[in-house]
Structures are given as C-alpha cells and as structure tokens.
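One example given next:
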Amino acid sequence: MDIEVRIRGFMMDPATNMPIIVLKDISSDAVMPIWVGFFEAKAISDEIDKTAASRPMTHDLTRNLFRHLNATLERVVINGLFNETFFATLCLRQGDEDLVVDARPSDAIALALRADCPIYVAEHVLESAKLQSTGTAEGPSAEQLRWFEGLNDEDMGRYKM
C-alpha cells in the first residue's frame, strides 16, 4: 500500500550539514526524512517558492518533454530503500498507456511539484525509514534521529538555499 505524503519542510542535518526533505504522511503524524544534495534541494525549494530561472533547469526541461510527448505525470512513488538509499518511480500516462520510470526521489519530488501531482511512499519504505537503526557513515542511526521527533513548525521551517 502506498501512503500519500506532502513536503513538511526543509532542514539542515546538524550532524552532516546536508539538506533534508521532510515528508509527512497526510493521514497521520508520521514523518520521513530524506537526505538530498544541495542542487536537488535547491530545485525543490525553487519550485516551492515559484522562483523562475532565466532558462529551463533540468526538471523544467523534463516537465516540458512530458508535455510535448502528451504524457502526464500522474504520481510519484518512493518505493524502495536499499543500503540506506531511497528509490522512486515516476508513474506517467501517455494516451492509453501507463509508463513507469525509475528516478531518484529528489528528482521525483521536484517533478511532482512541477506537475502538481501527488507524492507517495510505499508503506514498507515508510516503516523501514522510521525503524532504521544501523547508523553508518552514510546515514544516522534511529537514536541519532531522536532530535527530529520533537520539532515544532518553526523548527521544521523550509530550508532556504
């Protein structure tokens, strides 16, 4: 089962100084952080803020290609978590055909915002991300993420690029 989420905010990870996209289940208080690169965070932040570049950026180009190919981005799904790396798919409709394309979650989210389509997380991914407790160099442990649980709306404010 896929769970619809929305972007709750942007933050900086105090341990790694990397941007975090905070996704929130629309029907519960569950949140899921996804660490992304600075350029990916900027692409998402610019679309949230409706900041237009003088030339189409990569996600704008992709959206324009979808339009010119008469394809519609119906939804994006963050559907995998392997070795602390998230995976996603773009679910497109072109005429009578449904298409599924692999994508990085940050790219999928940036495109979802541009296409005004919903973002989903597979239930098993949300549960894995909440329960993950390995704590390696690539990612923090569940214990290290305890600071995340008590954040209020001000703390969870959008990260400005």
In short: Residues 131-142 have pLDDT under 50 and may be disordered. The chain is about 30% helix and 35% strand. The first helix runs from residue 38 to 48. Residues 2-149 form a domain with the Bifunctional nuclease domain fold (CATH 3.10.690.10).
